[in-house]
Amino acid sequence: MLNTLVIGAGTMGSTHAAAYVKMEDVTLVGIVDTNLAKARDLAEKLGTKAFQTYEEAVGNLMSIDVVSVCVPTPVHKEYVMKAADENRHVICEKPLARSLSDARDMIHYCQDKGVKLFVGHVVRFFPEYVRAKQVVDEGKIGNPAVIRTTRGGGFPIASNDWYSDFNSSGGLVLDMIIHDFDFLRWCFGEVERVYAKSSRTRVFEKLEYALVTLRFESGAIAHVEGTWAHQGFSTRFEIAGKEGIIEYDSAKVAPVVASKKESVSSGGVAVPESPMKNNPYFTELQHFINCINTDTKPIVSAEDAYKAMEISLAALESIETGKAVVLQGTMEKEAVQ
Amino acid sequence: MKIGMISFAHSHAFSYADALTQLDGVEIAGIADENEERGKKVSSQFNTEYFQDYEDLLDQPIDAVIISSENSRHYEHVVAAAKKGKHILCEKPLAHTIEDAKKIIDVCKEQNVILQTAFPVRFNTPVVKAKQIIESGQLGNIVAVKGTNRGTNPGGWFVDPAKSGGGAVIDHTVHVVDIIRWYTGAEVKEVYAEVGNLISDYDIDDCGLLTMEFDNNMFATLDCSWSRNENYPTWGDVTLEIVGTSGTLTVDAFEQKVNVYNKDGARWNFWGDDMDKALVEDFITSVREGKTPSITGEDGLKALSVAIAAYESSKKQEPVKVN
């Protein structure tokens, strides 16, 4: 039985906490949030304890084996290191950090302390993405050629509006479409070159829209669309290979749609759902817990998280310079050859 | 009005010919095609006279010609027609090189004939509706556009660079670039492109992703790949995602379809308005009224310049300025 502590009672903290409560081999021992009322609300709902600080939780709890870090990106490092200091395994939300140097420090720190560091690149646990990779791996569409992904919806709302602060969040490109970068790298290997454009610095309205082109070492080309300019969250992908095409659009998958008449004159509301027995966050967290219990390698490693950040940061650099950015790893390899 | 047609090398000629037969007071006065078998076949199909030599067709009392030859032949055919005072509707891309496109424009000006580039997508009804929505101002300022114009590798002369000037990039960049220019009045300043030959066994580009910077601080991407295979339910697409400061607009030019499932698999059967017919009708009206064409040779050149810059960018792996 592993005892887990969740830091952060926002959207992701709530998701982690709810998943732990469902797991048979895990006890959710507490929720920490500097906004104690928020922590209390969530703790009450899930039958666990609320704390205002990590230190308070540590002082009051008998044992904590795993810490889930679900706070804004710039604070990840602080909590990951605190947890590692006391030999607790860490499950950190993505992106791992705001800068590559922080990410590297965190990975080394956890290695030195002998604790496992997992990063929540949950798209690798979404069944539609897993299935697409499987179809590609089975060779059913031949060699992948042009891949397109889309992710986004409205501008995210969170504590202190931290997503709006580019220096904290890295915006859409670091926070959101890093999911797609990780997925694409998982499926198609290393990225050689990145070119990107974003609405950031072009408009004053609260929206962000980015279009990124990736060239893989395999030759495949990917187009990644990220949006915080639309209404309603959706994800899409299309993989065109030499011999076939895979398409998916979450907005078109609605096996259950409940419609309610609001009044005689006005229309109603339709609530589409695509229910599964377990949500992908549960699957992901259960996998990380299993990796701790059995001391096995995860489907997505901290190094993968670092690599995904490299792509995001290269895209941000390209947006800023207007030039194509060749990934460091590629250049180093060429220098070695 | 009597219209001649030069070459059926590009299959769009079939729908243009169909359109001509449906228009009141318009007659296909003859078809010239150096491919005799093809020329005779289509001449009998459209119930008109066949000419082996296009000069003989141009000597007929015709008002205008529709040129649907290989890209590299456009210049030769345009010059011949313009010199005999015939107005011209020329298939896209206007030419396979910038030089030819410029000369095409010049000769038509000198000879005082109408030159229209065939960009039928401007006459697709959903695309037109989207223009009205943009012009209403409800999207605010346009920030970005994401376009696709995918297709199926046509093979034949399309995969022979000497005749086509290139593959997917030259074939499928021009439509969407033209639409974005038409929608926004902005010009492409810079192009970056990743281009590849990853799908067909022909030695020609069949994958392309362009990123464009415009002179109004807007950006756009375009997927011009020949990435649809024979089992995909349709030939390709034209889609646009337009992001404005106060709203977004999604356009799928060929979404008006019924889905058909039979021994051929699953196919999409389009029932929307016929854009090729509307294009031809518009050209005929311009000729009749002697007015400036709705889509000029310059429009054709601007769109072609982006495709040519895309090839250059993909070689340099850097963005390239567009003049």
Automatic annotation (TrEMBL), chain A:
Name this protein carries in UniProt: Gfo/Idh/MocA family oxidoreductase
PANTHER family in UniProt: BILIVERDIN REDUCTASE A
Native species: Oceanobacillus arenosus
GO molecular function: nucleotide binding
Domain GFO/IDH/MocA-like oxidoreductase: 129-247
Superkingdom as given in the UniProt entry: Bacteria
Name of a matching Pfam family: GFO_IDH_MocA
Gfo/Idh/MocA-like oxidoreductase N-terminal domain span: 3-121
Automatic annotation (TrEMBL), chain B:
Gfo/Idh/MocA-like oxidoreductase N-terminal domain span: 16-118
Domain of life: Bacteria
GFO/IDH/MocA-like oxidoreductase domain mapped to chain residues: 128-249
Record-annotated membrane-spanning stretches: none
Pfam families: GFO_IDH_MocA, GFO_IDH_MocA_C3
GO MF annotation terms: nucleotide binding
InterPro entries with a match to the protein in the record: Gfo/Idh/MocA-like_OxRdtase_N (IPR000683), Gfo/Idh/MocA_Oxidoreductases (IPR051450), GFO_IDH_MocA-like_dom (IPR055170), NAD(P)-bd_dom_sf (IPR036291)
Protein's recorded name: Gfo/Idh/MocA family oxidoreductase
Provenance organism: Oceanobacillus arenosus
